[in-house]
Design a protein that fits this description.
This protein has 158 residues and is α+β, with helices and mostly antiparallel strands. The protein has three helices and three strands, in the order ααββαβ. This is TadE-like protein.
Length: 158
């Protein structure tokens, strides 16, 4: 005896085939969204680290520095530690403290002649240190953030 198949039963297994076709596209979109989110988060972390480093320069630093440590070194170490605690490796982070009027010159925060002058904290990290997926050396690039601040450690005269 032969069974007559209805149109409903002829589609058995079609859902599995359709899913097999669509699944790689859905996975690529999900992985792409995760990677874009990580880059956005890392860029925000770089900007926050630059701001917090610059804020340190405007504070009274008495008692905050170790023996022989300069304010520039402390700022750089603090920025790298902040980023490392948020998953960005210290060795992929570069910190620069530059004169705002002439960004090619380094800026010494401790120098008395630099009191109340503008400076820039430049923080950059390699994309390969931020990305969850491997990055080919030729595709790597630098993400960066810059914050301009005033060296607020001025001598008060009476």
């Amino acid at each position: 005896m032969t069974r007559n198949r209805s149109p409903k039963t002829d589609r058995r297994g079609a859902v599995a085939v359709e899913f097999a076709v669509i699944a790689p596209v859905l996975m690529a979109i999900a992985v792409g969204m995760i990677e874009v989110n990580r880059v956005y988060e890392a860029q925000n972390l770089l900007a926050t680290a630059a701001r917090e480093g610059a804020r340190f320069a405007s504070m009274d630093r008495e008692g905050l520095l170790r023996d022989g440590q300069t304010a520039n070194q402390k700022l750089s170490d603090d920025v790298k530690t902040f980023l490392a605690s948020n998953g960005i490796p210290r060795d992929s982070v570069q910190v620069g403290i530059k004169d705002h009027d002439n960004p090619s010159l380094d800026f010494d925060i401790d120098e008395p002649t630099n009191d109340l002058r503008l400076f820039e904290v430049q923080v950059s990290a390699d994309y390969s240190g931020v990305s969850y997926s491997p990055v080919a050396p030729g595709d790597d690039y630098s993400m960066s953030a810059t914050m301009v601040f005033r060296n607020g450690r001025a001598t008060i005269s009476q």
